[in-house]
Amino acid sequence: TVDERAKPVLRSSAARAWDARGRAVAIEVPVKPNVLRVHVASDAEAPIVIDPSWASIAVPLKLRTHYTAMLTADGRVLLVGGLAAGGADASSELFDQRTGVSVFGPSLETGRYDHTATLLRDGRVLITGGHGAAGSLDSVEIYDPRTNTFKSGPAMAVAREHHSATLLADGRVPLMFCNFQPPALVLRIYG
Q: What is residue 119's predicted lDDT score, i.e. its pLDDT?
């Protein structure tokens, strides 16, 4: 089901139903804004008993696309940046899986989307590149969960968006992307 702003607030998983003779009945429960319909198999005998197994769900606090979602060392999910109604977004959110609560986190120094987020061995999160208000970004920011802040890191030699970043066993993070003019694979290693 959804709230008045059409944001999902409940979900039903594996809804079960039984007919008047106690037989399990196949059902579908499609949900649209402000409408909940139950479709029951045609051979079922009324009355039908339904156990929908409802559960609440968390939704992002801000509508955005092209963001990163990173599982942090303490089990929360950090959503960073993205493309929002106002363009490149600088906000972050923290979702606590244990409580189901989302809260706004600290703001990035630079709004960005199509960036990377990499969990470092010490629990910090490395945010690199992306696209900002003025185009491709060479900036780097580091989220520190202990202080709940983003701080600038060393800038990249080349602006990047749509790139990849992977934590290596030795703690270094190579950044790779394809520069299409002329075609070449560019690699930068942090750490």
A: 95
